[in-house]
Specification:
The chain is built from 29 helices and no strands. The chain is mostly helical. Among the domains are: 80 residues, Tetratricopeptide repeat domain (Serine Threonine Protein Phosphatase 5, Tetratricopeptide repeat); 90 residues, Winged helix-like DNA-binding domain superfamily/Winged helix DNA-binding domain (Arc Repressor Mutant, subunit A), CATH 1.10.10. α14 packs antiparallel against α15, α24 packs antiparallel against α25 and α26 packs across α28.
Length: 552
């Protein structure tokens, strides 16, 4: 066995080479044999956090704090207290985090020139303001921390503060300015100016915010950079799961659903082994793919697992209830989520809100949400926000009876989705274009668009959306008999059409619009369906439709 001194030298060498697992082992051996000096205890803590041994990390960092106090290095002790507060907050131990941050603040009073340690303690305080809804105060605190970090030439503190400034700008509605700050701070991360843990925080927070404001090109670019960073450190656990979660979202958008499921599974595995921040994304994007494929029970399980992370799995969960015909529950969930969301996350909920309010027949609420999305897109005119806003505007105009006016924004959105290579949304938008053309009397072109959309959805395996297309055009899609002809089972062709739309989450009013019927006629058809299937709810009827292949 190597001596304590030899093991310590090996640990330091592995640490400098970013061989985190090897360094963790050597530092651990040296610590057990004869103890570690304070600086090496800090290194040991870092390797423990990065390899998924968070409890060992907090214990080592606490010991380093005590050693620094014994040697009279109070600023270093404050630095340890600050990082303990940050790590404990990330693992959900809010009370312990608060205690360490309070201790660090008290110790600062004993130091004439605290330097970078003071700036580090400002960062969790600023984060609390940011997520407490006071982005302006957060920006001021981050600015102060940035000034301290710059003056003391501490790149970790300065870069984390600059990251926070970018997040605050986004929450204040200045997305373009915030993203410029992210680009600048990412230079420090990608050139190795920042140490490992702050670097991982910067990567993941930057990508998460880019995805929140629908900046797909930036999210893709920085996810690829995070991939390279993680691949260069094969023993890394912390942050690697979040990398897979970000990948899962991008794969899902691009229609690579099998790859998205594989990435989500890796995120879940890394979450269980020391990257807890990956849990939400790992399960949420798994649920998204399952929902779009019509695997509703599996999607519900995934969303509930995502919720265990402490974050609300929206809009996915609400859209799942919509797909099951539980329109009012979907409305309650999405409206509650919008009311509770910060400015950044709210933009991700608006599209779901538009879709659900349209299904519920509340066109005024849908118009309000679409207008909010339009304002967001006008403030940050990137391709994906523009596509989302244009599609929402067109969908609402269509339901408001303005088919001619709806065509322009819908065509714009369709073009943008194809340019962005987001096939599911492109197909859904083409369905809306087809509906507008049908209502304008151009049945031939509408049918061509419906058929093209269905082909794209079939390639993806998006069964619920395929069912919606089938319900709109009936058996004529395949050149077969008219939709009103008899079908296997107890239901008539018209009842199958009604059931398909109900199972796709449409309200009676929306079904009536789609099939050119009165709401009273739709209600009568639904009553007959319930009686024939011996069920008493829309949910039960929807499940029958999926279980008996009526949605295909």
């Amino acid at each position: 066995m190597a001596t304590s001194k030899a093991g310590l030298d090996l640990g330091r060498a592995a640490y400098d080479d970013h061989r985190w697992g090897e360094a963790f082992g050597h530092f651990g051996d040296a610590h057990r044999e004869g103890g570690l000096p304070a600086a090496d205890l800090e290194r040991f803590a870092t390797t423990a956090f990065l390899t998924g041994h968070s409890r060992v990390g907090t214990d080592a960092l606490a010991r380093a704090h005590e050693e620094y106090l014994l040697t009279g290095d109070v600023p270093a002790a404050v630095r340890c207290a600050g990082w303990l507060g940050i790590h404990l907050l990330n693992t959900g131990e809010a009370a312990a985090s608060s205690g360490w941050l309070a201790r660090g603040t008290r110790l600062l009073e004993e130091v004439d020139e605290p330097g970078a340690a003071e700036g580090l303690l400002l960062i969790p305080a600023a984060v609390a303001k940011l997520y407490g809804g006071d982005a302006a105060e957060a920006a001021a605190l981050f600015g102060k921390a940035y000034g301290i970090g710059t003056a003391s030439r501490d790149r970790d503190v300065a870069s984390l503060a600059q990251l926070g400034q970018g997040q605050a700008q986004v929450m204040l509605g200045h997305a373009a300015a915030g993203l410029e700050l992210f680009d600048e701070v990412m230079v420090a991360a990608t050139t190795g100016e920042v140490s490992a843990i702050p670097c991982g925080i910067i990567y993941c927070a930057t990508i998460g915010t880019c995805q929140a404001v629908f900046d797909l090109p930036r999210a893709l670019e920085w996810t690829m950079a995070l991939d390279r960073w993680c691949e260069g450190q094969p023993e890394l656990v912390l942050f690697s799961g979040q990398c897979h979660a970000h990948r899962a979202e991008l794969y899902a958008l691009r229609g690579l659903w099998d790859e998205a499921m594989a990435a989500a599974a890796k995120a879940q595995e890394r979450s269980a082994h020391g990257d807890p921040q990956a849990r939400f994304g790992g399960f949420y994007y798994q649920g998204e793919v399952q929902r779009l494929r019509g695997l509703f029970e599996a999607a519900s399980t995934s969303y509930r697992a995502a919720a265990d992370s402490g974050f609300d799995p929206q809009p996915g969960m609400a859209l799942l209830h919509l797909a099951l015909g539980e329109v009012q529950l979907a409305r309650r969930q999405i409206n509650d989520a919008v009311a509770a969301a910060d400015a950044t996350w709210r933009s991700r909920l608006l599209c779901g809100l538009v879709e659900i309010e349209l299904a519920a027949g509340d066109f005024a609420a849908a118009r309000s949400a679409a207008d909010d999305l339009g304002r967001f897109a006008s403030g940050y005119p990137a391709p994906m926000p523009r596509a989302l806003a244009a599609q929402a505007d067109g969908a609402v105009l269509l339901e408001e009876g303005e088919a001619a006016a709806a065509l322009k924004p819908l065509r714009t959105a369709w073009t943008l989705w194809r340019t962005l290579e987001i096939p599911y949304e492109a197909a859904r938008c083409r369905m809306l274009v087809a509906k507008a053309r049908r209502r304008l009397g151009d049945e031939e072109t509408a049918l061509m668009d419906f058929e093209a959309a269905r082909k794209e959805l079939e390639e993806l395996g998006a069964r619920p959306a395929m069912a919606t297309v089938d319900a709109l055009i009936g058996a004529n899609l395949l050149g077969g008999p008219a939709a009103s002809a008899a079908v296997p089972g107890p239901l008539t062709g018209r009842e199958v059409e009604v059931l398909r739309l109900v199972a796709a989450g449409k309200s009676n009013r929306a079904v009536a619009v789609e099939l050119f019927l009165s709401e009273k006629t739709v209600a009568r058809h639904l009553s007959n369906i319930f009686a024939k299937l011996e069920v008493t709810s829309r949910v039960a009827a929807s499940r029958y439709a999926y279980e008996h292949g009526l949605m295909a």
